[in-house]
Amino acid sequence: MGKPYLWVAVVTAVVLLAMSALLLNHNTAAEPTAKHALPSDGPIVYVYRSGSHYYAIDLLSNKVICVDSPTACIQEAIDYAQSYAQAVAGNAADYKTQPGGEVLIGPGVYVVNETIQLPSGFALVGSGMRNTVITQGGPFPIMEWRDPTRTNQDFVIRDLTFYGAYATSKPMIDLSQVETGSHGLIEDVYINCNPAGNVCLDISGDDDIALIGVITSLNTDWDNPSVRAMVPGGNINIIASKLFGGGVFMGENINFLGDVFGPYQQVNLFTVPNHPAIYNFEGCYFNNATRIYVWVGYGSVPVMFIDMEGTVMYTANPVFVNPSKAPITIYLTLSNTYMYSSQPASMFDNGIHGFITYGGAVDLVNVSTNTTG
Which H/E stretch holds residue 250? Predict the structure, then answer.
């Protein structure tokens, strides 16, 4: 291999020269059109911060797209890639037939003074959860759909932090939509709602979505959970995430794998129309008096199957809360699971018809199994 440090020095020098050339042309902004000889897979757009200024550039064409803006050049980067997609597709009405775009965001704190509007089919990628921070500059959502009436909107968001500094009347990250065949991925993202009481993330209607390595801050009540995912026919996978602010969930099949909830929060589960809802908790940890609240959704079948395997739950009385006291049936499977309450607690609240199946080692401390069969 020879001299690896020499290769590192050469590559670093080339990168610095390229960046210097770009910084000399900050006033040269370009709008993409069909005439640009860009690759068919679209531009590579990079947003970065230098000192107190924000920039967006097209790494393929070396064009400066933006120098400072109310959205720290993030919206301009998104618009640039979206304009390219429209030009390639001949402004086709169906965005699903157009190539999406990927906006890369460098390290730094990006203060946004307007809501970022996200079109469908985009990937927003930071430089690491601890390195790229997008923060509110005022009492408005940080991000929402460009067209909230559209259906089948897909997205990818990863490797960054959203930091809320103001209370808002809407979710801080509002990616809710009419339920259709949409797909979404949020990975290695920290969402901090400050002050508590906001909905941090709303992904209701996103039919097939995964949250992987997502962290959300504490919140105060179930009306404003850290995560809201109301998808009656949806398939949701939440993996290795820390939902410290609990959440509100409705889905045909929702899997919680290796997640942490609480402390002192509510995990709210709703029944769904047409058939029983299925909720799986595998390798999860419920911290300090965090409980599961069950609700009968409008027009739904009042039946749930809840499977808890390899899960630790520090809970309170009752473990499964039925706030409305509407009749609901829960088929609960416990396998290799530990439950603990500091005071005597019943498993099920009034109105719940509970059935428990045991598998493997199950240890219930101060929890009585008041089943109906």
Answer: strand 247-257
pLDDT for res 208: 82
Give residue 247's domain range: 24-280
Beta-bridge mates of residue 229: 249
Give the residues across from 132 on adjacent strands: 108
Q: Is residue 16 situated within a structural domain?
A: no
127 shares its domain with 227: yes
Q: Is 250 among the domain residues? A: yes
Q: What is the pLDDT of residue 154?
A: 83
Same domain for 180 and 263?
Answer: yes
For residues 183 and 94, state if they share a domain: yes
Burial class (CB in 10 A: 0-12, 13-18, 19+), 172: buried
CATH number at residue 142: 2.160.20
Residue 184 sits in the same domain as residue 59: yes
How distant is the alpha carbon of residue 64 from its chain centre? 30
52: left (phi over 0), alpha (psi -120 to 50) or beta: alpha
Is residue 20 classed exposed, middle or buried when 0-12, 13-18 and 19+ CB atoms within 10 A define those classes?
exposed
Strand 266-270 relative to strand 328-346, pairing: unpaired
Classify residue 258: in a domain, yes or no: yes
Say what the pLDDT of residue 41 is: 57
d(C-alpha 227, C-alpha 248), whole Å: 6
Question: What would the two tokens of residue 328 be?
Answer: 């609901």
Rounded average pLDDT per 10-residue block, the chain, 373 residues: 43 39 40 36 86 94 94 94 71 50 93 93 92 94 85 87 88 81 88 76 84 84 77 88 90 94 90 92 94 88 96 95 94 97 94 94 93 56
217 and 126 both lie in a single domain: yes
Total structural domains within the chain? 2
Same domain, 195 and 255: yes
- Those residues whose C-beta lies under 8 Å from the C-beta of residue 148, and which sit 6 or more positions away, are 174, 176, 177
- Closest C-alpha among 222, 223, 226 to residue 238: 226
Going by C-alpha positions, the residue among 221, 220, 228, 259 that lies closest to residue 243 is 259
The count of other CB atoms within 10 Å of the CB of residue 27 is 7
Which pLDDT belongs to residue 222? 58
Alpha helices in the chain (DSSP H): 4-23, 74-88
SS3 of 83, please? helix
